[in-house]
Amino acid sequence: xxxxxxxxxxxxxxxxxxxxxxxxxxxxxxxxxxxxxxxxxxxxxxxxxxxxxxxxxxxxxxxxxxxxxxxxxxxxxxxxxxxxxxxxxxxxxxxxxxxxxxxxxxxxxxxxxxxxxxxxxxxxxxxxxxxxxxxxxxxxxxxxxxxxxxxxxxxxxxxxxxxxxxxxxxxxxxxxxxxxxxxxxxxxxxxxxxxxxxxxxxxxxxxxxxxxxxxxxxxxxxxxxxxxx
Amino acid sequence: xxxxxxxxxxxxxxxxxxxxxxxxxxxxxxxxxxxxxxxxxxxxxxxxxxxxxxxxxxxxxxxxxxxxxxxxxxxxxxxxxxxxxxxxxxxxxxxxxxxxxxxxxxxxxxxxxxxxxxxxxxxxxxxxxxxxxxxxxxxxxxxxxxxxxxxxxxxxxxxxxxxxxxxxxxxxxxxxxxxxxxxxxxxxxxxxxxxxxxxxxxxxxxxxxxxxxxxxxxxxxxxxxxxxxxxxxxxxxxxxxxxxxxxx
Lengths: 229, 248
Ligand SMILES: Nc1ncnc2c1ncn2[C@@H]1O[C@H](COP(=O)(O)OP(=O)(O)OP(=O)(O)O)[C@@H](O)[C@H]1O
Ligand SMILES: [Mg+2]
Fold this sequence. Notes:
The complex is a heterodimer of chains A (229) and B (248). Chain A contains seven helices and ten strands. Chain A has helices at residues 45-52, 55-58, 80-84, 103-113, 118-132, 147-159, 177-192, and strands spanning 5-13, 22-29, 34-38, 63-70, 73-74, 87-90, 165-169, 196-200, 212-217, 220-223. In chain A, helix 7 (177-192) links the parallel strand 7 (165-169) and strand 8. The termini of chain A are far apart. By secondary structure, chain A is of the alpha/beta class. Chain B is mainly alpha-helical and 248 residues long. Chain B has two domains: 7-119 and 218-248, no CATH class; 135-209, no CATH class. The interface between A and B is medium-sized, with 39 and 27 residues.
Protein backbone atom coordinates (compact mmCIF):
# COMPACT_ATOMS: atom_id res chain seq x y z
CA UNK A 1 0.00 0.00 0.00
CA UNK A 2 1.27 3.49 -0.83
CA UNK A 3 1.88 6.08 1.85
CA UNK A 4 -0.31 9.18 2.12
CA UNK A 5 2.74 11.43 1.70
CA UNK A 6 6.03 10.43 0.19
CA UNK A 7 8.62 13.02 -0.82
CA UNK A 8 11.59 11.83 -2.85
CA UNK A 9 14.71 13.84 -3.43
CA UNK A 10 12.83 17.15 -3.58
CA UNK A 11 14.70 20.32 -4.50
CA UNK A 12 13.17 23.70 -5.13
CA UNK A 13 14.22 27.24 -5.93
CA UNK A 14 11.83 30.11 -6.71
CA UNK A 15 13.90 31.39 -9.62
CA UNK A 16 16.84 30.28 -11.62
CA UNK A 17 19.95 31.51 -9.88
CA UNK A 18 18.11 32.10 -6.60
CA UNK A 19 18.99 30.13 -3.50
CA UNK A 20 17.79 26.55 -3.32
CA UNK A 21 15.21 26.58 -0.54
CA UNK A 22 14.82 22.80 -0.46
CA UNK A 23 17.73 20.47 -1.28
CA UNK A 24 17.27 16.77 -1.86
CA UNK A 25 14.61 16.56 0.82
CA UNK A 26 13.03 13.19 1.70
CA UNK A 27 9.96 12.59 3.83
CA UNK A 28 7.55 9.72 4.37
CA UNK A 29 4.43 10.07 6.46
CA UNK A 30 2.43 7.00 7.38
CA UNK A 31 -1.34 6.85 7.61
CA UNK A 32 -2.61 8.08 10.95
CA UNK A 33 0.67 9.76 11.81
CA UNK A 34 1.18 13.32 13.05
CA UNK A 35 4.50 14.77 11.92
CA UNK A 36 5.66 18.05 13.39
CA UNK A 37 8.10 20.28 11.55
CA UNK A 38 10.04 23.17 13.11
CA UNK A 39 12.53 25.55 11.63
CA UNK A 40 13.80 29.10 11.76
CA UNK A 41 11.96 31.96 10.09
CA UNK A 42 12.40 32.09 6.36
CA UNK A 43 13.99 28.64 6.24
CA UNK A 44 11.37 27.29 3.81
CA UNK A 45 8.59 25.76 5.91
CA UNK A 46 5.80 27.38 3.92
CA UNK A 47 7.58 26.47 0.72
CA UNK A 48 7.57 22.84 1.83
CA UNK A 49 3.81 23.10 2.52
CA UNK A 50 3.26 24.44 -0.99
CA UNK A 51 5.19 21.46 -2.37
CA UNK A 52 3.24 18.95 -0.29
CA UNK A 53 -0.06 20.38 -1.48
CA UNK A 54 0.80 20.74 -5.16
CA UNK A 55 0.71 24.55 -5.18
CA UNK A 56 4.32 24.09 -6.23
CA UNK A 57 4.68 23.29 -9.15
CA UNK A 58 1.12 24.14 -10.27
CA UNK A 59 0.97 27.80 -9.23
CA UNK A 60 4.47 29.09 -8.55
CA UNK A 61 7.01 29.02 -11.32
CA UNK A 62 10.40 28.10 -10.00
CA UNK A 63 12.38 24.95 -10.46
CA UNK A 64 11.21 21.79 -8.75
CA UNK A 65 13.16 18.59 -8.94
CA UNK A 66 12.29 15.26 -7.38
CA UNK A 67 8.78 14.13 -6.57
CA UNK A 68 5.91 14.48 -4.14
CA UNK A 69 3.66 11.43 -4.09
CA UNK A 70 0.22 11.66 -2.54
CA UNK A 71 -1.27 8.21 -2.02
CA UNK A 72 1.23 7.02 -4.60
CA UNK A 73 0.33 9.59 -7.27
CA UNK A 74 2.71 12.33 -8.33
CA UNK A 75 1.52 15.84 -7.48
CA UNK A 76 2.59 16.95 -10.95
CA UNK A 77 -0.09 14.78 -12.52
CA UNK A 78 -2.94 15.84 -10.22
CA UNK A 79 -4.77 19.14 -10.51
CA UNK A 80 -5.14 21.30 -7.39
CA UNK A 81 -8.90 20.69 -7.05
CA UNK A 82 -8.29 16.95 -7.33
CA UNK A 83 -5.58 17.10 -4.69
CA UNK A 84 -7.98 19.09 -2.52
CA UNK A 85 -10.45 16.21 -2.47
CA UNK A 86 -8.01 14.27 -0.27
CA UNK A 87 -5.68 16.91 1.15
CA UNK A 88 -6.54 20.02 3.13
CA UNK A 89 -4.11 22.88 3.70
CA UNK A 90 -4.49 25.57 6.34
CA UNK A 91 -2.41 28.50 5.09
CA UNK A 92 -0.17 30.50 7.36
CA UNK A 93 -2.00 33.74 6.63
CA UNK A 94 -5.77 33.55 7.16
CA UNK A 95 -6.26 36.70 5.08
CA UNK A 96 -5.31 34.81 1.97
CA UNK A 97 -7.88 32.09 2.32
CA UNK A 98 -11.17 33.63 3.36
CA UNK A 99 -13.33 35.11 0.62
CA UNK A 100 -17.00 34.57 1.45
CA UNK A 101 -19.47 37.15 2.74
CA UNK A 102 -20.15 35.27 5.94
CA UNK A 103 -18.75 32.43 7.99
CA UNK A 104 -21.47 30.00 7.03
CA UNK A 105 -20.80 30.44 3.30
CA UNK A 106 -17.09 30.18 3.94
CA UNK A 107 -17.51 26.81 5.63
CA UNK A 108 -20.04 25.54 3.10
CA UNK A 109 -17.81 26.38 0.13
CA UNK A 110 -15.56 23.30 0.34
CA UNK A 111 -18.20 20.62 0.89
CA UNK A 112 -20.37 22.24 -1.80
CA UNK A 113 -17.51 21.74 -4.25
CA UNK A 114 -17.32 18.09 -3.21
CA UNK A 115 -21.05 17.71 -3.94
CA UNK A 116 -21.87 16.86 -0.32
CA UNK A 117 -25.68 16.84 0.20
CA UNK A 118 -27.19 19.95 1.83
CA UNK A 119 -28.26 18.34 5.07
CA UNK A 120 -24.80 16.88 5.56
CA UNK A 121 -23.17 20.26 4.88
CA UNK A 122 -25.39 21.89 7.50
CA UNK A 123 -24.44 19.16 9.97
CA UNK A 124 -20.74 19.56 9.29
CA UNK A 125 -20.91 23.34 9.69
CA UNK A 126 -22.52 22.98 13.09
CA UNK A 127 -19.94 20.40 14.07
CA UNK A 128 -16.84 22.33 13.05
CA UNK A 129 -18.15 25.58 14.52
CA UNK A 130 -18.56 23.76 17.83
CA UNK A 131 -15.06 22.32 17.49
CA UNK A 132 -13.46 25.73 17.12
CA UNK A 133 -15.89 27.37 19.53
CA UNK A 134 -17.24 29.92 17.05
CA UNK A 135 -20.95 29.03 17.08
CA UNK A 136 -21.93 32.63 17.76
CA UNK A 137 -20.22 33.87 14.61
CA UNK A 138 -22.05 31.79 12.05
CA UNK A 139 -23.43 34.85 10.26
CA UNK A 140 -20.50 37.18 10.89
CA UNK A 141 -18.41 38.66 8.09
CA UNK A 142 -14.98 36.95 8.13
CA UNK A 143 -13.27 40.24 7.27
CA UNK A 144 -14.56 41.75 10.50
CA UNK A 145 -13.20 39.04 12.80
CA UNK A 146 -9.93 39.27 14.70
CA UNK A 147 -6.81 37.57 13.34
CA UNK A 148 -7.13 34.64 15.72
CA UNK A 149 -10.82 34.22 14.95
CA UNK A 150 -10.10 34.26 11.23
CA UNK A 151 -7.48 31.58 11.75
CA UNK A 152 -10.03 29.45 13.60
CA UNK A 153 -12.45 29.88 10.71
CA UNK A 154 -9.74 28.94 8.22
CA UNK A 155 -9.09 25.75 10.20
CA UNK A 156 -12.83 25.06 10.41
CA UNK A 157 -13.20 25.54 6.67
CA UNK A 158 -10.59 22.89 6.00
CA UNK A 159 -12.01 20.50 8.64
CA UNK A 160 -15.37 20.85 6.89
CA UNK A 161 -13.89 19.13 3.83
CA UNK A 162 -12.99 16.09 5.96
CA UNK A 163 -9.75 15.43 4.08
CA UNK A 164 -7.65 12.33 4.70
CA UNK A 165 -4.47 14.39 4.87
CA UNK A 166 -4.23 17.69 6.75
CA UNK A 167 -1.40 20.21 6.57
CA UNK A 168 -1.24 23.06 9.06
CA UNK A 169 1.19 25.88 8.28
CA UNK A 170 1.57 27.60 11.65
CA UNK A 171 -2.18 27.42 12.01
CA UNK A 172 -2.04 28.17 15.73
CA UNK A 173 0.18 31.23 15.65
CA UNK A 174 -2.60 33.71 16.46
CA UNK A 175 -4.93 31.46 18.43
CA UNK A 176 -5.14 31.74 22.22
CA UNK A 177 -4.18 28.96 24.63
CA UNK A 178 -7.74 27.74 25.06
CA UNK A 179 -8.25 27.51 21.30
CA UNK A 180 -4.96 25.68 20.88
CA UNK A 181 -5.84 23.10 23.50
CA UNK A 182 -9.17 22.50 21.77
CA UNK A 183 -7.55 22.22 18.38
CA UNK A 184 -4.95 19.76 19.66
CA UNK A 185 -7.71 17.59 21.09
CA UNK A 186 -9.44 17.65 17.71
CA UNK A 187 -6.23 16.65 15.96
CA UNK A 188 -5.80 13.69 18.27
CA UNK A 189 -9.35 12.62 17.55
CA UNK A 190 -8.74 12.93 13.81
CA UNK A 191 -5.61 10.84 14.23
CA UNK A 192 -7.73 8.11 15.84
CA UNK A 193 -9.92 8.23 12.75
CA UNK A 194 -6.83 7.45 10.68
CA UNK A 195 -6.18 10.95 9.31
CA UNK A 196 -2.63 11.89 8.44
CA UNK A 197 -1.30 15.27 9.56
CA UNK A 198 1.72 17.45 9.02
CA UNK A 199 1.90 20.42 11.35
CA UNK A 200 4.36 23.21 11.11
CA UNK A 201 4.93 25.41 14.10
CA UNK A 202 7.36 27.76 15.69
CA UNK A 203 6.21 26.75 19.13
CA UNK A 204 7.39 23.33 20.28
CA UNK A 205 4.60 23.19 22.87
CA UNK A 206 2.12 22.86 20.03
CA UNK A 207 4.01 19.88 18.70
CA UNK A 208 3.58 17.76 21.85
CA UNK A 209 0.89 15.78 20.07
CA UNK A 210 3.20 14.94 17.15
CA UNK A 211 4.46 11.38 16.81
CA UNK A 212 7.80 12.72 15.70
CA UNK A 213 9.29 16.15 15.21
CA UNK A 214 11.61 17.07 12.36
CA UNK A 215 13.76 20.15 11.90
CA UNK A 216 14.01 21.87 8.55
CA UNK A 217 17.48 23.28 7.97
CA UNK A 218 19.77 23.67 5.00
CA UNK A 219 16.88 22.58 2.81
CA UNK A 220 16.49 19.15 4.41
CA UNK A 221 14.68 17.48 7.29
CA UNK A 222 16.48 16.11 10.34
CA UNK A 223 15.11 14.45 13.48
CA UNK A 224 14.69 17.04 16.22
CA UNK A 225 17.29 16.69 18.94
CA UNK A 226 16.73 19.81 20.96
CA UNK A 227 17.99 22.61 18.75
CA UNK A 228 16.74 24.33 15.64
CA UNK A 229 20.01 25.15 13.92
CA UNK B 1 -50.47 40.74 2.21
CA UNK B 2 -48.29 43.59 3.39
CA UNK B 3 -46.71 46.14 1.12
CA UNK B 4 -43.26 45.50 2.53
CA UNK B 5 -41.55 43.73 -0.33
CA UNK B 6 -38.08 43.74 1.18
CA UNK B 7 -37.95 39.95 1.38
CA UNK B 8 -38.67 39.35 -2.30
CA UNK B 9 -36.63 36.64 -3.96
CA UNK B 10 -33.59 38.18 -5.71
CA UNK B 11 -34.75 36.59 -8.95
CA UNK B 12 -38.02 38.49 -8.68
CA UNK B 13 -36.08 41.70 -8.19
CA UNK B 14 -33.94 40.83 -11.19
CA UNK B 15 -37.06 40.37 -13.32
CA UNK B 16 -38.48 43.71 -12.18
CA UNK B 17 -35.19 45.45 -12.94
CA UNK B 18 -35.02 43.84 -16.37
CA UNK B 19 -38.58 44.97 -17.14
CA UNK B 20 -37.91 48.53 -16.01
CA UNK B 21 -34.65 48.91 -17.86
CA UNK B 22 -36.07 47.45 -21.08
CA UNK B 23 -38.90 49.95 -20.81
CA UNK B 24 -36.34 52.70 -20.40
CA UNK B 25 -34.80 51.61 -23.68
CA UNK B 26 -38.03 51.14 -25.65
CA UNK B 27 -40.07 54.14 -24.52
CA UNK B 28 -39.64 57.35 -26.50
CA UNK B 29 -42.46 59.41 -25.09
CA UNK B 30 -41.37 61.74 -22.31
CA UNK B 31 -44.53 61.26 -20.26
CA UNK B 32 -44.24 57.51 -20.53
CA UNK B 33 -40.61 57.69 -19.45
CA UNK B 34 -41.65 59.86 -16.53
CA UNK B 35 -44.26 57.26 -15.59
CA UNK B 36 -41.65 54.47 -15.75
CA UNK B 37 -39.31 56.55 -13.59
CA UNK B 38 -42.10 57.07 -11.07
CA UNK B 39 -42.81 53.32 -11.06
CA UNK B 40 -39.12 52.62 -10.54
CA UNK B 41 -38.98 55.00 -7.59
CA UNK B 42 -42.02 53.30 -6.08
CA UNK B 43 -40.36 49.92 -6.49
CA UNK B 44 -37.18 51.23 -4.87
CA UNK B 45 -39.20 52.48 -1.92
CA UNK B 46 -41.19 49.24 -1.57
CA UNK B 47 -38.16 46.97 -1.77
CA UNK B 48 -36.46 48.93 0.98
CA UNK B 49 -34.02 51.01 -1.07
CA UNK B 50 -32.89 54.42 0.15
CA UNK B 51 -34.59 57.16 -1.85
CA UNK B 52 -32.51 59.86 -0.17
CA UNK B 53 -29.27 58.23 -1.26
CA UNK B 54 -30.67 57.85 -4.74
CA UNK B 55 -31.52 61.54 -5.01
CA UNK B 56 -28.06 62.57 -3.88
CA UNK B 57 -26.71 60.27 -6.59
CA UNK B 58 -28.96 62.01 -9.10
CA UNK B 59 -27.57 65.35 -7.98
CA UNK B 60 -24.05 64.26 -8.84
CA UNK B 61 -25.16 63.67 -12.41
CA UNK B 62 -26.79 67.08 -12.97
CA UNK B 63 -23.80 68.51 -14.83
CA UNK B 64 -23.68 65.46 -17.07
CA UNK B 65 -27.39 65.83 -17.79
CA UNK B 66 -27.03 69.50 -18.75
CA UNK B 67 -24.12 68.57 -20.99
CA UNK B 68 -26.22 65.84 -22.64
CA UNK B 69 -29.00 68.32 -23.40
CA UNK B 70 -26.60 70.88 -24.87
CA UNK B 71 -24.81 68.27 -26.96
CA UNK B 72 -28.10 66.94 -28.30
CA UNK B 73 -29.08 70.50 -29.21
CA UNK B 74 -25.83 71.28 -30.97
CA UNK B 75 -25.84 68.14 -33.03
CA UNK B 76 -29.49 68.04 -34.07
CA UNK B 77 -30.25 70.40 -36.90
CA UNK B 78 -33.98 70.48 -36.27
CA UNK B 79 -36.41 72.36 -34.14
CA UNK B 80 -36.66 75.87 -32.87
CA UNK B 81 -33.69 77.55 -31.32
CA UNK B 82 -34.30 78.47 -27.71
CA UNK B 83 -30.83 79.73 -26.85
CA UNK B 84 -28.07 80.74 -29.20
CA UNK B 85 -24.59 81.97 -28.42
CA UNK B 86 -22.88 83.38 -31.52
CA UNK B 87 -23.41 80.80 -34.27
CA UNK B 88 -23.87 77.87 -31.90
CA UNK B 89 -27.37 76.68 -31.08
CA UNK B 90 -26.98 75.84 -27.42
CA UNK B 91 -30.59 74.86 -26.84
CA UNK B 92 -33.24 73.76 -29.30
CA UNK B 93 -36.64 72.31 -28.47
CA UNK B 94 -35.89 69.02 -30.23
CA UNK B 95 -32.51 68.85 -28.53
CA UNK B 96 -34.13 69.54 -25.20
CA UNK B 97 -36.61 66.74 -25.79
CA UNK B 98 -33.98 64.22 -26.86
CA UNK B 99 -31.72 65.28 -24.03
CA UNK B 100 -34.53 64.82 -21.54
CA UNK B 101 -35.22 61.37 -22.97
CA UNK B 102 -31.62 60.34 -22.45
CA UNK B 103 -31.55 61.81 -18.96
CA UNK B 104 -34.75 60.03 -17.96
CA UNK B 105 -33.39 56.75 -19.27
CA UNK B 106 -30.26 57.25 -17.23
CA UNK B 107 -32.31 57.99 -14.12
CA UNK B 108 -34.46 54.90 -14.60
CA UNK B 109 -31.45 52.62 -15.01
CA UNK B 110 -29.66 54.12 -12.00
CA UNK B 111 -32.78 53.80 -9.86
CA UNK B 112 -33.41 50.24 -11.06
CA UNK B 113 -29.87 49.31 -10.08
CA UNK B 114 -30.63 50.45 -6.54
CA UNK B 115 -33.32 47.76 -6.36
CA UNK B 116 -30.63 45.12 -6.82
CA UNK B 117 -28.56 46.56 -3.99
CA UNK B 118 -31.43 45.71 -1.64
CA UNK B 119 -30.73 42.02 -2.29
CA UNK B 120 -27.89 40.21 -0.55
CA UNK B 121 -25.22 39.56 -3.18
CA UNK B 122 -24.81 35.95 -2.11
CA UNK B 123 -28.51 35.49 -2.81
CA UNK B 124 -28.18 37.07 -6.24
CA UNK B 125 -25.43 34.59 -7.09
CA UNK B 126 -27.57 31.73 -5.83
CA UNK B 127 -30.43 33.03 -7.99
CA UNK B 128 -28.19 33.03 -11.04
CA UNK B 129 -26.98 29.51 -10.29
CA UNK B 130 -30.56 28.29 -9.95
CA UNK B 131 -31.21 29.90 -13.32
CA UNK B 132 -28.56 27.54 -14.67
CA UNK B 133 -25.82 30.14 -15.06
CA UNK B 134 -22.54 28.14 -14.85
CA UNK B 135 -21.27 28.36 -11.30
CA UNK B 136 -17.76 29.44 -12.33
CA UNK B 137 -19.27 32.52 -13.94
CA UNK B 138 -21.51 33.21 -10.97
CA UNK B 139 -18.52 33.01 -8.63
CA UNK B 140 -16.54 35.39 -10.79
CA UNK B 141 -19.30 37.90 -10.19
CA UNK B 142 -19.22 37.27 -6.43
CA UNK B 143 -15.48 37.75 -6.24
CA UNK B 144 -15.73 40.95 -8.24
CA UNK B 145 -18.40 42.30 -5.89
CA UNK B 146 -16.33 41.22 -2.92
CA UNK B 147 -13.05 42.72 -3.97
CA UNK B 148 -13.93 45.95 -5.77
CA UNK B 149 -14.42 47.85 -2.50
CA UNK B 150 -11.09 46.48 -1.23
CA UNK B 151 -9.40 47.72 -4.36
CA UNK B 152 -10.88 51.14 -3.92
CA UNK B 153 -9.68 51.14 -0.33
CA UNK B 154 -6.19 50.25 -1.42
CA UNK B 155 -6.13 53.03 -4.00
CA UNK B 156 -7.24 55.60 -1.42
CA UNK B 157 -4.62 54.31 1.00
CA UNK B 158 -1.85 54.75 -1.55
CA UNK B 159 -3.07 58.24 -2.38
CA UNK B 160 -3.23 59.16 1.30
CA UNK B 161 0.28 57.85 1.83
CA UNK B 162 1.43 60.05 -1.01
CA UNK B 163 -0.31 63.09 0.44
CA UNK B 164 1.16 62.41 3.86
CA UNK B 165 4.57 62.67 2.29
CA UNK B 166 3.68 66.20 1.29
CA UNK B 167 2.65 65.65 -2.30
CA UNK B 168 -0.32 67.86 -3.05
CA UNK B 169 -1.84 66.33 -6.14
CA UNK B 170 -4.16 69.25 -6.73
CA UNK B 171 -1.26 71.66 -7.12
CA UNK B 172 0.75 69.59 -9.57
CA UNK B 173 0.30 70.38 -13.29
CA UNK B 174 -1.91 67.90 -15.08
CA UNK B 175 0.81 66.09 -17.05
CA UNK B 176 2.94 65.55 -14.00
CA UNK B 177 -0.13 64.50 -12.05
CA UNK B 178 -0.87 61.83 -14.66
CA UNK B 179 2.65 60.56 -14.31
CA UNK B 180 2.22 60.36 -10.53
CA UNK B 181 -0.94 58.33 -11.02
CA UNK B 182 0.92 55.97 -13.33
CA UNK B 183 3.47 55.40 -10.57
CA UNK B 184 0.61 54.40 -8.31
CA UNK B 185 -0.85 52.09 -10.91
CA UNK B 186 2.01 49.60 -10.93
CA UNK B 187 2.06 48.70 -7.23
CA UNK B 188 -1.73 48.66 -7.24
CA UNK B 189 -1.85 46.32 -10.20
CA UNK B 190 0.81 44.05 -8.69
CA UNK B 191 -1.03 43.80 -5.41
CA UNK B 192 -4.28 43.06 -7.23
CA UNK B 193 -2.68 40.34 -9.31
CA UNK B 194 -1.09 38.74 -6.24
CA UNK B 195 -4.40 38.91 -4.41
CA UNK B 196 -6.17 37.32 -7.36
CA UNK B 197 -3.61 34.52 -7.50
CA UNK B 198 -3.77 33.85 -3.75
CA UNK B 199 -7.52 33.81 -3.90
CA UNK B 200 -7.71 31.37 -6.78
CA UNK B 201 -5.20 29.11 -5.01
CA UNK B 202 -7.22 29.25 -1.79
CA UNK B 203 -10.39 28.37 -3.72
CA UNK B 204 -8.80 25.50 -5.60
CA UNK B 205 -7.28 24.16 -2.38
CA UNK B 206 -10.85 23.89 -1.14
CA UNK B 207 -11.73 21.80 -4.21
CA UNK B 208 -13.30 24.53 -6.33
CA UNK B 209 -14.01 23.00 -9.77
CA UNK B 210 -13.10 19.51 -8.62
CA UNK B 211 -16.31 18.35 -10.31
CA UNK B 212 -18.48 19.83 -13.05
CA UNK B 213 -21.31 20.14 -10.52
CA UNK B 214 -21.52 21.38 -7.02
CA UNK B 215 -24.23 21.36 -4.40
CA UNK B 216 -25.39 24.40 -2.50
CA UNK B 217 -26.23 24.87 1.13
CA UNK B 218 -28.46 27.78 0.24
CA UNK B 219 -31.56 27.27 -1.84
CA UNK B 220 -33.99 29.93 -2.95
CA UNK B 221 -37.70 29.31 -3.16
CA UNK B 222 -40.30 31.60 -4.70
CA UNK B 223 -43.01 32.59 -2.23
CA UNK B 224 -46.58 33.36 -3.26
CA UNK B 225 -45.81 37.09 -3.22
CA UNK B 226 -43.00 36.50 -5.73
CA UNK B 227 -45.34 34.89 -8.24
CA UNK B 228 -47.80 37.70 -7.70
CA UNK B 229 -45.18 40.40 -8.21
CA UNK B 230 -43.73 38.69 -11.28
CA UNK B 231 -47.13 38.36 -12.96
CA UNK B 232 -47.96 41.96 -12.11
CA UNK B 233 -44.62 43.19 -13.48
CA UNK B 234 -45.10 41.24 -16.69
CA UNK B 235 -48.61 42.64 -17.19
CA UNK B 236 -47.48 46.21 -16.53
CA UNK B 237 -44.48 45.66 -18.79
CA UNK B 238 -46.67 44.57 -21.70
CA UNK B 239 -49.14 47.37 -21.10
CA UNK B 240 -46.42 50.01 -21.10
CA UNK B 241 -44.68 48.46 -24.08
CA UNK B 242 -47.98 48.59 -25.96
CA UNK B 243 -48.41 52.21 -24.92
CA UNK B 244 -44.89 52.96 -26.11
CA UNK B 245 -45.69 51.46 -29.52
CA UNK B 246 -48.95 53.39 -29.83
CA UNK B 247 -47.41 56.69 -28.80
CA UNK B 248 -44.35 56.46 -30.99
N1 LIG C 1 7.04 33.71 -3.99
C1 LIG C 1 8.34 33.75 -3.67
N2 LIG C 1 9.24 34.14 -4.57
C2 LIG C 1 10.56 34.19 -4.28
N3 LIG C 1 11.08 33.87 -3.08
C3 LIG C 1 10.23 33.46 -2.11
C4 LIG C 1 8.81 33.40 -2.36
N4 LIG C 1 8.20 32.98 -1.22
C5 LIG C 1 9.19 32.80 -0.32
N5 LIG C 1 10.39 33.08 -0.84
C6 LIG C 1 11.70 32.97 -0.13
O1 LIG C 1 11.88 31.64 0.24
C7 LIG C 1 12.44 31.54 1.55
C8 LIG C 1 11.59 30.64 2.41
O2 LIG C 1 10.32 31.22 2.61
P1 LIG C 1 9.17 30.49 3.42
O3 LIG C 1 7.98 31.38 3.40
O4 LIG C 1 9.00 29.13 2.89
O5 LIG C 1 9.79 30.44 4.89
P2 LIG C 1 9.10 29.99 6.27
O6 LIG C 1 10.01 29.00 6.89
O7 LIG C 1 7.70 29.58 6.04
O8 LIG C 1 9.16 31.33 7.09
P3 LIG C 1 8.17 31.83 8.26
O9 LIG C 1 8.63 31.17 9.52
O10 LIG C 1 8.42 33.30 8.32
O11 LIG C 1 6.79 31.49 7.87
C9 LIG C 1 12.54 32.96 2.09
O12 LIG C 1 13.87 33.36 1.98
C10 LIG C 1 11.69 33.78 1.14
O13 LIG C 1 12.26 35.04 0.95
MG1 LIG D 1 5.92 30.24 6.63
